Amino acid sequence: MSTQSTTLLVIGGGPGGYIAAIRAGQLGVATILVESDQLGGTCLNIGCIPSKALIHAAEEFAKAAQYAEGSALGIHVQSPGIDLEQTVRWKDGIVSKLTGGVAALLKKNGVQVVKGWARIIDGKTVEVEREGAAPLRISCQHLLLATGSQAVELPSMPFGGIVIGATEALSPASLPQRLVVVGAGYIGLELGMAYRKLGAEVCVVESQDRVLPAYDVDLTKAVAISLQRLGVKLHLGRTVQGLNASGDAVLVRNAQGEETALPADRVLVAVGRRPRTQHFGLESLLLDMAGRAVQIDDQCRTSMRDVWAIGDVTGEPMLAHRAMAQGEMVAEIIAGKRRHFLPVAIPAVCFTDPELVVVGQTPQEAQQAGLDCISAVFPFSANGRSMTLESTEGFVRVVARRDNHRIVGWQAVGRGVSELSAAFCQSLEMGALLEDVAGTIHAHPTLGEAVQEAAMRALGHALHV
Question: Which of 25, 229, 338, 395 lies 20 to 30 Å (CA to CA) from residue 140?
Answer without folding.
Answer: 338
